[in-house]
Specification:
This protein is α/β, with parallel strands linked by helices. 39% of the residues lie in helices and 17% in strands. It holds the Pfam family GDPD.
């Protein structure tokens, strides 16, 4: 348990309890992903953090939606960037809920923590503007597969928590494999976490020793998407700091049982 509590950064997000339980897109039974109802249900079921994705509407408003298009959830081939935020909000994705704006999510859930994947090329500027206007910097972690987006986010909001982009994590992984501790520390200087699958680049990323070395470099290690109880427990034993899951109820039960055994 000691490894799980060794790191404590400043800010509400980074100061929250660990291991962190992140609800993947607010996926909950009876709710559509990335809706305010799903977010509320996930928090009520024991999620510590809502994980979601930022796209940008035609009128430049950051909205919470995973895909580039509406086709998977609505059947429409329209791209998010070609539809206004108002039109997106008026859609019925389920239970009468449409696509929420980032502002609506942060405002309607003022105490919730958010892990936000900054997806589209224009999303860093508009997303950071909204976050700053709501004084929400301390309760979000901004992620992106894009190194350009990650750098832009950190330039615009220097104090916000952030995770590694895909290319940055590969560089960290290579440096670690060659035992280059100083290089690993240099590469992790502007991030607070790596958020990764259990396997990458043909390697198992869940070894306790690897996680411990990242902890030594000052970053948390979060895994996605973890739904099976046995795998949840295995990653907790390896001292993972966060788990992104589609099954908040099961994950909360397993984490609480694991903590009670410590």
């Amino acid at each position: 348990m000691a490894d799980n509590v060794a790191i404590m950064a400043t800010g509400t997000y980074m100061a929250a309890r660990r291991p962190r339980l992140l609800s993947h897109r607010g996926e909950m039974p009876g709710f559509v992903e990335n809706t305010l109802g799903g977010f509320r249900a996930a928090l009520a079921a024991g999620a510590d953090v809502i994980e979601s994705d930022i796209q940008v509407s035609r009128d430049g408003i950051p909205v919470l939606f995973h895909d580039d298009t509406l086709v998977r959830l609505t059947g429409s081939p329209a791209r998010i960037c070609d539809v206004t935020a108002h039109e997106l909000g008026e859609m019925d994705l389920g239970r009468g809920e449409g696509v929420p704006t980032l502002e609506a999510a942060l405002s309607s859930l003022p105490h919730a923590l958010f892990n936000l994947d900054v997806k589209s090329p224009t999303s860093p500027e508009v997303a950071t503007s909204v976050i700053r206007s709501l004084n929400a910097e301390s309760r979000v972690l901004l992620a992106s597969f894009s190194e350009r987006n990650r750098r832009t986010v950190k330039r615009l909001l220097p104090g916000v928590a952030a995770s590694a982009s895909s290319s940055l994590f590969v560089r960290i992984l290579i440096a670690d494999r060659f035992g280059m501790k100083r290089q690993v520390r240099r590469l992790t200087r502007q991030i607070d976490a790596v958020q990764i699958p259990t396997r990458g680049a043909g390697m198992n990323l869940t070894h306790r020793s690897f996680i411990a070395r990242l902890h030594e470099a000052g970053v948390e290690v979060h895994f996605w998407v973890i739904n099976e109880p046995q795998e949840i427990r295995r990653l907790l034993d390896a001292c993972a700091d966060g788990l992104v899951t589609d099954d908040v109820v099961t994950a909360r039960r397993v984490i609480d049982m694991w903590l009670a055994e410590r």
